[in-house]
């Protein structure tokens, strides 16, 4: 145990994260989208996003033995709606994740978690990382705790990136009737009920992380308050406007923004709604997006943000891959090389489920 743990560094809210570790995360910002933006919110580094007050925040880093070179960062963290899966971010190329490195690092990380005062085994309800890291962690965790993994992955996804040079700006013609007006825009408070329903329906497609009505309303409230959700509104003459698609961008750090939710209700599918709104959001964020922050009836500030990369995860069997490919996300077309990320869950009788 002492030999294993000598390669581990740990940080929590009381210790803070050292400057050199922030540098490593920023250097690997696209992959670190699962860890970096959340850490920035926890420590109040994001000027226009509220600080996270949840206290269950733990970060571990595995370094190459005998050096200070960080190769993997593990986050056991909590957001406003609950605890997140364990996220493990490699900071080295996937090709360098050799069987020996994976064995040593996972033994060290699992041992560090089990040695952490107050850390409960039931906290590890799932792990999400590059496929070979997830597999290595799940195998080691099973061996050390006796808690078996769930046979089928919760999520089997491709990690994809869109940049200014790959973004396809040509707008695909919408297929609804000519008397329909389409308006892509940031969501407002009046959209809360419709967005809550779509958040709940989206979660229903991602078992076991379902949302209750109350949780869905809370998620919608947070997304709207933080200017993190866009809508495509459908307007027909003499009819109440409806939200045909939502796109959430909830993780942002310097240079990188992450699309974390895209959902179109069944009645609007097949009309190009998701492609239209995803493209609009990417254009806004890649080129420049003006976000208005307000208090009561007047604007306090205006922030011009620019992002070099927009990233997302999409299920390997999800037909939305075609949509994202047409927008300009890379690695999604047939035969292309892509980075595979997998979420593996653990025996639900022995863990306490959190929230994605």
How would you describe what is shown here?
This protein is α+β, with helices and mostly antiparallel strands. It has nine helices and 16 strands. It has helices at residues 2-5, 19-27, 36-42, 99-115, 131-145, 192-204, 213-225, 273-287, 320-327; strands at 8-12, 58-63, 70-76, 78-79, 82-83, 86-90, 126-130, 155-163, 181-186, 229-235, 242-253, 255-263, 289-295, 298-305, 307-315, 339-345. The strands form three sheets. It has a twelve-stranded mixed β-sheet, with helices on both faces. Strands 4-5 form a two-stranded antiparallel ribbon. Strands 13-14 form a two-stranded antiparallel sheet. Helix 4 packs across helix 5 (131-145) and helix 8 (273-287) runs parallel beside helix 9.
Summarize the model shown:
The chain is an alpha+beta fold. 28% of the residues lie in helices and 30% in strands.
Largest sheet: 12 strands, mixed
- Which structural class do the helices and strands define? alpha+beta
Counted by DSSP, the helix tally is 9
Low-confidence stretches: 288-304
The spatial strand order of the largest sheet comes to 1-2-3-6-7-16-8-15-12-11-10-9
Number of strands: 16
Mean pLDDT: 90
Helix share bin: 25-40%
Element order, helices and strands?
A: HEHHEEEEEHEHEEHHEEEHEEEHE
